[in-house]
Amino acid sequence: MSDLPQLLTEALTETRERTLTLVAGLDTVEFETVYSTLLSPLVWDLAHIACFEDLWISRAAGVPALAPELFTTYDALETPRSRRGELELLGTEESFAHLAAVRARTEALVSQVATDRSDLVELVICHEQQHNETMLQLLALAHLPNPFTRAQAAEPPAASSRAPAPTGGALELVGFAGGEVTIGAGPERGFVYDNERPVHVRALAPFRLALTPATNADWLAFMDAGGYQRRELWTREGWRWRQAERIERPLHWTEDGRLWRLGELVDIDPEAPVMHISWFEADAFATFHGLRLPSEFEWELAASSGPASGQRSPLPWGTEPVARARANVDQVGGGPVAATSFDGATQTGLRALIGDVWEWTASWFDGYPGFSSYPYREYSEPFFGEHYRVLRGGSWATRPRVASVTFRNWDLPQRRQIFAGVRLAGDA
Q: Which pLDDT belongs to residue 342?
């Protein structure tokens, strides 16, 4: 008998334990408060996770859903974040009860669906793990307590497993040959999202990419040089946004030179990657340095290529979930660490390509040539076009199952609640 049902059950259980850890100790008011129209109240997330699982597991098994009457209320496209606080939602206790009821039935059906529709079980697992990260965004935005104890913090890998730290960091760039390069995820990866497929070839000019993402020290230098006041550094839309929102520093930074980190006011670590910046800010920072943002395809080549050839390696990092020993992922570290702490799951010498902070790219979010939506159109296709910018690499809050070199995140260029930073790029 295949051990796949057992492996899927273990992954479902571990993921649910993480979800419950994130919200442990919160009261009903904290669950149900709308802290921002950019993010759902936590109680919506809980019931949405349950409804999504109910929908796809019931479809995979060919049985009626437990609560189809809830699907419209908890459909992410039907009810945008800005409206979710206005809806008649399940209460906190009801949401937890629905989570438990759906999961009990899922566990009873896993053996039935594992062989033919294991991809839908993987979809349910990855979906909940992605919501773990958005729930952490809400915890950070609302200054709610850090759900992890310091004893659970991720340990860096042993010094012997790491290459020497780069000397130039965010302003020292490594050259890549470019050429005809392979982009996207193939069938050997098992379940991936539709926007990661199909595998295709892109022609890239030679380019350079920074050894590390920009650090807090780099950002302080940008601020000290008047980066937020210099109109010539900003796009027209970016400058309009900066003025309207009175943006003077990254989100969660305070005027007295500290920052909020999951409910705690802490000193700014100069060596850690800057976080909670918009695409507009990232682009202005690149212009300030006479550089640019990388395309997402340059980023993917750099993350999946060998150190000498500049071409995609036969087994690129990301074929398996990125281990915590290779990158600052999986949430329990509570935030970014020094940009040189981990190799970031790359063979090229670049640091923190995976983990710490999502990295804004110059690319608009769109389908690859030959794109086909699967298993549902609403995940990717409604967001295609020149509205959303692509982010790559995952953050400290990304679960290892989701973090890979082909995973594509996206958001509007003004958004700052995401755990996003920037890595500079340049032409050869």
A: 83
Which residues of the chain are modeled with pLDDT < 50? Answer: 1, 150-151, 153-154, 156-166, 306-319
CA pair distance 359, 62, nearest whole angstrom: 40
pLDDT of residue 207: 97
**Which residues face 259 on adjacent strands?**
253, 266
DSSP label of 3: S
In the block, residue with structure tokens 């890239």: 204
On whether the CB atoms of residues 81 and 134 are closer than 8 A, the answer is: no
Domains and CATH numbers, the chain: 4-147 (1.20.120.450), 156-427 (3.90.1580.10)
Residue 11 tokens, joined: 């992954």
Contacts of 167 (CB under 8 A, 6+ apart): none
Give Cα separations from 350 to 162, 310, 342, 384 (angstroms): 12, 13, 10, 30
Cα-trace Rg, the chain: 21
- Distance, in Å, from the CA atom of 413 to the CA atom of 106, rounded to the nearest integer, reads 38
Q: In angstroms, rounded to a whole number, what is the distance separating the alpha carbons of residues 132 and 139? A: 11
DSSP class per residue in 232-261: GGS-HHHHHHHHHHT--S-TTB-TTSEEEE
pLDDT of the residue at 149:
63
> What is the C-alpha to C-alpha distance for residues 341 and 215, in angstroms, rounded to an integer?
13
- At residue 253, what is the residue type? W
For residue 24, what pLDDT is reported?
92
How far is residue 37's CA from residue 344's CA, in Å, rounded to a whole number? 33
Is the pTM higher than 0.85? The answer reads yes
Burial class of residue 376, CB neighbours in 10 A (0-12, 13-18, 19+): middle
312: three-class secondary structure by DSSP: strand
Helix and strand counts by DSSP (H, E) for the chain: 8, 11
- 3-class DSSP assignment, residue 97: helix
Calculate the CA 234 to chain-centre distance. Answer: 25
What pLDDT digit, counting tens, does each position of 245-278 carry?
999 999 999 999 999 999 899 999 999 999 999 9
